[in-house]
Amino acid sequence: MSLNINKAFDSEKNLWEVKLIGEIDISTANSLKEILIKLLEEKEIDIKLDCKELDYIDSTGLGVLIGILKRLKSIDKDIIIINPKPNISKLFKITGLDKIFIIK
Amino acid sequence: MSLNINKAFDSEKNLWEVKLIGEIDISTANSLKEILIKLLEEKEIDIKLDCKELDYIDSTGLGVLIGILKRLKSIDKDIIIINPKPNISKLFKITGLDKIFIIK
Amino acid sequence: MTTKCANKSEDSKKENICMSLPSKPEYVSIVRMTSSVIANKIGFNIEDIEDIKVAVGEACNNAVLHGCDSNIFKVEFIISEEKFIIEIEDEGKGFNVDKYPHPDICNPKESGLGIFIIKSLMDNVEVKSSPGKGTFIRMIKFLNEKDKAYN
Amino acid sequence: MTTKCANKSEDSKKENICMSLPSKPEYVSIVRMTSSVIANKIGFNIEDIEDIKVAVGEACNNAVLHGCDSNIFKVEFIISEEKFIIEIEDEGKGFNVDKYPHPDICNPKESGLGIFIIKSLMDNVEVKSSPGKGTFIRMIKFLNEKDKAYN
Ligand SMILES: Nc1ncnc2c1ncn2[C@@H]1O[C@H](COP(=O)(O)OP(=O)(O)O)[C@@H](O)[C@H]1O
Ligand SMILES: Nc1ncnc2c1ncn2[C@@H]1O[C@H](COP(=O)(O)OP(=O)(O)O)[C@@H](O)[C@H]1O
């Protein structure tokens, strides 16, 4: 019923590795936004989102990711999404967002 | 959100071993009652209730157990409750039923 | 849709969630679940959440068991920083709150444990009932200081 | 307590659960949870339950985001053997249902996905809105034959 976010800098691959645990919804999307923006203020590099333990995301969460992706794309960087659960993959698919995010 | 009941006859100890899995409440207590009564119609012996995977019980469930216990006590048999979770132990304690059931 | 709920109280820090459901056994677990989700959000510890769930379940059982068929019962969750109030109301047959059967451990019975369990698990319990009209029960659990600090 | 809900419908096989909640983000997950508990009871499979949860969440998001402060929103769950209807109503600012922004994948935006997602996940969706008065959305998921047989 809440969101935990673990972040680490992967110096070898030069990217932010962010683990999302819990639910991204209208009450937690803002804290995700703030954390991702802070990371980019530190270093504007690729962000890898590990969604293995992400149970839920909705349009407010997708909106945050779209906003961050637009900023990264403008400097040729990316968001890479790994280990999404079936319900999360489905949402990226029906919205067509699987075509603009890198999903593994 | 539902109740599963696994029953087996322990011929060595001459008792019914009944595993309760899920929740015993107003909507499932009756099926517990029917199953236990059927067992006693087959053989009137001790009943051992394994509550390891029992998540919830309320007064309707306790009422069923009290009814069966009264029948068993009248022929000097018992109900033995094993592995109750803390919330279930608490309910037996506050109602004083821990003094009339054998709880291990 | 005809749901109507004031969702307002004297104290602006309080917030209400109202529900109404058919008086049937299969709906009781929905109220139990909802109560535990809310209790968890308020910040109660696991033992308190279990207590609330059982107490709410017992009150709903009574509303359903002693309520009229094809009727509804209502639940109101009143949330504030220091306590959780739950009110459950039915339009069932009601009873005399001064002389309903109390449990007697020397002579255990199949019924009569519900209200006793609610009073044991909650900090404050009030029952009002009018025979023939219905029953109202209000129960309160206070958030202890430790859990408050944790929030 | 002032909750009022008809909980009755033409078809006696239908049963209703009504809720009303404060228009605040922290209450949306309670409605989501409740919808998934009910969907599970009706007998929907896991994928359908997830779809219902997301669609209900999106509709609640809109009620809360575009609703008025210090207001409430209402949810009605209508349960029958072959389908699950969910109605969500707010008294917020409303909008013109004929020309709200639709998503465009070539030009992705931070908002405007909610109703599109609801329509993709549910079998039938109806939106009524009066600018200045509020919005009503009804969504239906049908139970497929396989899950019905399983019940
Ligand atoms: N909501 C209610 N409507 C009518 N009668 C009630 C209600 N709640 C309790 N009672 C009466 O009080 C008695 C004691 O209730 P309770 O302690 O919950 O035990 P139980 O419901 O198991 O009998 C019930 O047997 C019933 O006669
Ligand atoms: N309940 C509502 N009350 C008022 N306006 C709404 C409501 N639901 C949707 N809208 C309007 O329709 C638009 C599209 O909604 P939606 O597809 O859910 O995307 P989002 O809410 O992310 O913008 C919203 O931006 C808003 O203007």
CATH class of chain C: Alpha Beta
Rg of Cα set of chain C: 16 Å
Helix segment count of chain C? 4
* Count of domains of chain C: 1
GO molecular function, one term (chains A, B): anti-sigma factor antagonist activity
Pfam families (chains A, B): STAS (PF01740)
Protein name (chains A, B): Anti-sigma factor antagonist
Domain STAS (chains A, B): 18-104
Description:
The complex is a heterotetramer, with two copies of chain A (104 residues) and two copies of chain C (151 residues). Chain A has 104 residues and is an alpha/beta fold. Chain A has a single domain (3-103), classed as STAS domain (Transcription Regulator spoIIAA, 2-Layer Sandwich). Chain A is built from three helices and five strands; from the N terminus they run ββαβαβαβ. Chain A has helices at 29-42, 59-73, 86-94, and strands at 3-10, 15-24, 46-57, 79-82, 102-103. A five-stranded mixed beta sheet of chain A has the order 1-2-3-4-5. In chain A, α1 (29-42) runs parallel beside α2 (59-73). The longest helix of chain A has 15 residues, at 59-73. The radius of gyration of chain A is 12 Å and the shape is globular. In chain A, 35% of the residues are buried. Chain C has one domain: Histidine kinase-like ATPase, C-terminal domain (Heat Shock Protein 90, 2-Layer Sandwich), CATH 3.30.565.10. In chain C, β2 and β3 form a beta hairpin. Chain C is globular. In chain C, strands 1-2-3-5-4 form a five-stranded antiparallel beta sheet, with helices on one face. Chain C has helices at residues 28-42, 46-65, 114-121, 145-150, and strands at residues 15-22, 72-79, 83-90, 124-130, 134-142. Chain C binds chain D through residues 1-7, 15-22, 24, 26-27, 29-30, 33-34, 37-38, 41, 72, 74, 76, 87, 89, 136, and chain D through 1-7, 15-22, 24, 26-27, 29-30, 33-34, 37-38, 41, 72, 74, 76, 87, 89, 136. β1 (15-22) of chain C pairs antiparallel with β1 of chain D. Chains A, B: This is Anti-sigma factor antagonist. Chains A, B: It comes from Paramaledivibacter caminithermalis (strain DSM 15212 / CIP 107654 / DViRD3). Chains A, B: Pfam families: STAS. Chains A, B: One of its GO terms (molecular function) is anti-sigma factor antagonist activity. Chains A, B: Belongs to the anti-sigma-factor antagonist family.
